[in-house]
Amino acid sequence: DSGVTQTPKHLITATGQRVTLRCSPRSGDLSVYWYQQSLDQGLQFLIQYYNGEERAKGNILERFSAQQFPDLHSELNLSSLELGDSALYFCASSVSLVSYNEQFFGPGTRLTVL
Amino acid sequence: GQSLEQPSEVTAVEGAIVQINCTYQTSGFYGLSWYQQHDGGAPTFLSYNALDGLEETGRFSSFLSRSDSYGYLLLQELQMKDSASYFCAVRDEGGNKLVFGAGTILRVKS
Questions:
Q1: Cβ(A76)–Cβ(A20) under 8 Å?
Q2: B43 and A105 in contact by Cβ < 8 A?
Q3: What is the pLDDT of residue B92?
Q4: Pairwise CB contact (< 8 Å): B96 & A48
Q5: Which of B33, B14, B18 is nearest to B74 (CA)?
Q6: Can you point out the beta strands (E) in chain B?
Q7: CA distance B45 to chain A (A)
Q8: Closest CA to B36 of A98, A2, A86
Q9: At residue B77, does pLDDT exceed 90?
Q10: Which residue of A has its CA nearest to B38?
Q11: pLDDT in tens, A90-105
C-alpha cells in the first residue's frame, strides 16, 4: 500500500458524459501527478500540482482539467468523454516539487467509456 | 524531448538472472528510474540511478552509463511473482514529470 488513495476504483459511463476522479496523496506529500495508461499509449503524464498550484503539464487534452485543494487532495475532471478516453488513470505523489527519485502511485481508476 | 527504448517482452525461468535494457534520448538528464507494475496494479518504484554505476537492492540491481545513454535492470534468483511489466523512466528538464518507456513484460516460467 503506497498511502495514495484514489476513488472510484472503476467507472463506467457513456460518451459525452463528464466524470471526476479523486486522489488523496500520501500524508506530507505536496506534489500530485496524474497519469493516463492505455494499451496503445503506455503511461502518459498529464499534469502536476504542487501545494495547490499547477506546475507541469503533459499531453493533457483541453477536455480534461484538474485542481488541487487546500487539503492537498486532487481531482481530475474529464468531460465530453470519448471512447478513446477509456484507460487506467493513476495519481502519484511525492514530497517535493521536483521528484528526483520516487513517486508513489495510487491503485488507479479504471474508466470505461461506452 | 525524451524517448526511451526497452524490449517489449522477456521470458526467463525461475531461479535465473534476467537483464532488461533501456536506452534513452533526452535533452537534459536527471536520472533513470525503474518501476514495476503487476497486471492491473499500480506502478511501484524499484530503483533510481543519477550517477554511473550499479545500485543494488536485494535481488534487484540497476545500472547506468550516462556516456552511453543506457541503463539496465538486473533481476536475480527470479521468482514467479517477478512476472510483471517493468518500466524505465527519465525526468524532463524541469524535473517535474516522468517520461516512461513503453514497458517490458517479464514472464517467469517454472
A1: yes
A2: yes
A3: 73
A4: yes
A5: B18
A6: 3-5, 9-13, 18-25, 32-37, 44-49, 53-57, 60-65, 70-75, 84-91, 98-100, 104-109
A7: 6
A8: A2
A9: yes
A10: A107
A11: 999 998 777 666 899 9
